[in-house]
Amino acid sequence: MGLTGIQIFKMLPQTNCKECGAATCLAFAMNLAAGKAELDSCPYVSDEAREKLAEASAPPIRPVKVGKGVRAKTLGGETVEFRHEKTFFNEPAFAAVVNSDIAEDELQNKLTIWNAFQFDRVGFNLRPEFVAVKDVNQDKDAFAKVAKYIAENSEFNVVLMTENKDVMQAGIEATKFKRPLMYAATKDNVEDFGQLAKDNELPLAVKAESIDQVPELTDKLMEMGHKDLVIDTGSRDVKQLYEDQIGIRRAALRDKNKSFGFPTITFPCEMASNLDMEALLGSQLIAKYASMIVFSDFTSEMLFSLLLERLNIYTDPQRPMTVQEGIYEVGKPDENSPVLVTTNFALTYFIVNGEIEGSKVPCWLMIKDSEGLSVLTAWAAGNFAGDDVGMFVKKSGIENKVNTRELIIPGYVAAIKGEIEEELPEWTITVGPREAAHLPSFLKEKVSQ
Known about the structure:
Strand content: 15-25%
Helix content: 25-40%
Oligomer: single chain
Shape: globular
Number of domains: 3
């Protein structure tokens, strides 16, 4: 049975140095107990305590860092089977395949197109992260050339796909600075690939013939000193792969089976005859429970839907997405521009912001901290009351930015108008439209008066 957070805390140095990333040693201990942190993050823990805490501090599914730069990803690290139990942490990475015999101009064109697939959504930049270079003719020079071009000429990180030792070595030499994922160690090459991964300190994927063979490969690599492993059960049948993904998650979390305690990689590109079906399979695998999903290509319509699904599933259901309280400029407002106020729920902010931008009317948008609740919910919970809004306006500094003394409030909370007027007697409080979609016409009419 694992140690509790308090038991772990008693064995830590208790310096509260924050070098582990947690605010206190107690917080770090709680993270260790929950499997959300690694003991190696503490630079001052004693060797004796390290030995005692080794098992308690190991996450049931090891987090594996792959790639470098802005598109680097941490795979795995999950602590629950179902999202509603707590949350999912490390969203799956998306990769697309290029063959090692691809022409340079075609590769350049693909990378240009794929790199443009970036979507802004509620403050997040959504984009794919990896290109998988597939060895098709065991030409190590061609393989290395393609992998190197991707690593050096794009933000994408690299998956090296070959079972040939010499080809893999050439790919590693060309892309090691990007920390590529090696794919894949099989029962025939596990020792050679294990040594390559160890020598170059790289994450290594194993490819089994079935889920039953996975422990044989992972145990052997762990005996060689490997920790950063990724699992491919080898199944390319939809039903079997689905069962494998669930089986691995349950074995790691429920049974504490370390042989299965690693993230997984899946290949819809080898399971479907067209990209639409790949996207459908990818959608299932985002939820159950792939850590990297490899497609044959990327298109904007396929990517946007999958990236949005990924964002939704890997957003903490117990913590609303928020933006920081403050005054936001929409357009280039001046001292005579309208002043609006709303809550700090991220979706509310971005919808309102977008509608104001669409109106072409520069405005001051005031965002009040409402603990991430939408307007009506915040008002019902007492987090968007009239006197609170009035105090926020006083303290915000907006009076130093504008000559006008008119505040536009959301139409759904017209009831707080009188309370705000009591708190802000020098201001005119105007009730705006209920729906953000009506803001453009409302603002245009107001500035024309």
